[in-house]
Amino acid sequence: MPADAGPRSLAYRRVVLKLSGEALAGTLGYGIDPLVLERIGAEVREVTELGVQMAIVIGGGNIFRGVAASAGGMDRATADYMGMLATIINALALQDALEKAGLQTRVLSAIEMRAVAEPYIRRRAIRHLEKGRVVIFAAGTGNPFFTTDTAGALRAVEIGADAIMKATKVDGIYSADPKRDRGAERLARMTYIDVLNRRLEVMDTTAISLCMDNGLPIIVFDLTVSGNIKRIVLGEPVGSIVSS
What we know:
Layout: E1 14-19, H1 21-25, H2 34-48, E2 53-58, H3 66-71, H4 76-100, E3 105-109, E4 118-119, H5 122-130, E5 134-138, H6 148-158, E6 163-168, E7 173-174, E8 186-187, E9 189-191, H7 192-197, H8 205-214, E10 218-222, H9 228-233, E11 240-243
Parallel strand pairs: 1-2, 1-6, 2-5, 3-4, 3-5, 6-10, 9-11
Antiparallel strand pairs: 7-8, 10-11
Helix pairs in contact: 2-4, 6-8
């Protein structure tokens, strides 16, 4: 569906949803929780029915964390490639859930794996979105030493997204960890520079710098609250927004 279609009330018409691998684990703590997949599928369908073009970037931390493995002595590049392969597993699980929800999907991988995914080509990704398909970007950027947060920011800029939505387990950005500090203040709006200067763990610095250089808003929200994705695309004040 073209980006100019749909009701005029939409605040964002093309978005990238950044999901961590841990989000798919749900309460299990590791692996993939089928109930979480089912709920995400239902929510994404609800949003696409509004005319929103949606792409998803998925992490792999529920299966393998490259940074943790490299800290344990493994070669960092090797560990990162293993993490990228973990994102492929998550992408295929997410694809299955979205298709069960009645959506058309495509998995585009930065590492060629033609038996299970299309290779990432920018123009092809945009074409899929214009045809109303949900695009799942897997394997990060295809390069070691870059996080899936950076991959999310990069893909969002490449496809001309209106915003990147960072899914978390808290309802926005806080001045400190709200689970450890009861005095932590919720920050509804911030600039990129503030986030970088205060070293708030919204995304890694490469991802934030990429968003800042290209004027791409970052919306940090609580994925565990049903309907939040829809509220955001309709312009309701959900979570925290990082912009210029």
